[in-house]
Design a protein that fits this description.
The chain is of the alpha/beta class. It folds into 2 domains: 4-14 and 105-237, HAD superfamily/HAD-like (Rossmann fold, 3-Layer(aba) Sandwich); 17-100, Four Helix Bundle (Hemerythrin (Met), subunit A) (Up-down Bundle), CATH 1.20.120.1600. The protein has 9 helices and 6 strands. It has helices at residues 16-32, 42-55, 63-76, 85-100, 109-117, 147-150, 158-167, 181-190, 222-237; strands at residues 4-7, 121-126, 143-146, 174-178, 194-198, 214-216. Strands 3-2-1-4-5-6 form a 6-stranded parallel β-sheet, sandwiched between helices. Strand 4, helix 8 (181-190) and strand 5 (194-198) form a beta-alpha-beta unit. The structure holds magnesium ion (MG). Magnesium ion binds at residues 8, 10-12, 178-180.
Length: 238
């Protein structure tokens, strides 16, 4: 039977795009208000991102380090900020990360997590840098891991294996819930972990191509999806 349920975060428990746009805007406001102000044009940021990633390929999943390195180069362009570069970057990162956690949960997320946490151990396994501990739902999770913590992003198995190890459970005793067919569903199911694909009504038409145990478009349907997985496990045992 299922003991552990793991969750992806971005686009599984909340839409990520509004949170990133908001955080980028807060960051931009902060930098341009400095004396002298630091411009934050998107095309420059993209170019700096490419340069940093060419030097540090592992920053592709160490997103906080990536953003810190980009900001460092941006601030260094202004000679009058040279001596305070580190302080400015630290403050800007605080602002970005705080705003990054300014997310709006999908409807039904909190109720589903609350109900499931009564029966199962819940954990978060993310490639991103949201800090779920800062949110109202943080207390439902017994383990919160990011790709940065384990040194490798999904679809690599490290995050899943770390969760199995932590809870001392077998892959078939775990369900993983995520929105990405490759990074979440395929990666977890290759390890023998049951999966719930949290998708959209539009994307649902390709569900046959995604090897998920269950498909949902609404988190209110999650508890019954988990029940169906448990029912199938008991039927197979008989
Ligand atoms: Mg996701």
């Amino acid at each position: 039977m299922i003991k552990v349920i793991g969750f992806d975060l971005d686009n599984t428990l909340w839409p990520v795009k509004p949170a990133i746009l908001y955080a980028e805007q807060q960051l931009k406001n902060h930098l341009t208000a400095l004396k002298p102000g630091i411009a934050y044009p998107p095309e420059d940021i993209q170019a700096l991102r490419d340069t940093v990633l060419a030097e540090h390929p592992d920053y592709s999943f160490r997103l906080t380090d990536l953003r810190r390195a980009i900001l460092h180069r941006l601030v260094q362009r202004e000679p009058r900020h040279h001596e305070q570069t580190q302080d400015i970057v630290d403050r800007a990162m605080q602002i970005f990360l705080k705003a990054r956690n300014h997310v709006t949960l999908y409807s039904g997320a909190e109720a589903a997590l609350s109900a499931l946490s009564q029966t199962y151990a819940l954990c978060t396994l993310t490639n991103g840098n949201a800090d779920v501990g800062q949110l109202s739902i943080g207390g439902f999770f017994q383990l919160k891991l990011s790709a940065e913590d384990v040194g490798a992003p999904k679809p690599k198995p490290d995050l899943f294996l770390a969760a199995l190890e932590h809870f001392q459970c077998q892959p078939e005793e775990m369900v993983y819930v995520g929105d990405d067919p490759i990074l979440d569903v395929d990666a977890a199911s290759k390890l023998g972990i049951h999966t719930v694909w949290k998708t959209t009504i539009e994307a649902r038409s390709v569900a046959d191509a995604v090897p998920a145990s269950e498909v949902i478009v609404d988190l209110t349907a999650l508890p019954t999806a988990i029940e169906r997985i448990n029912d199938r496990i008991s039927t197979e045992r008989e």
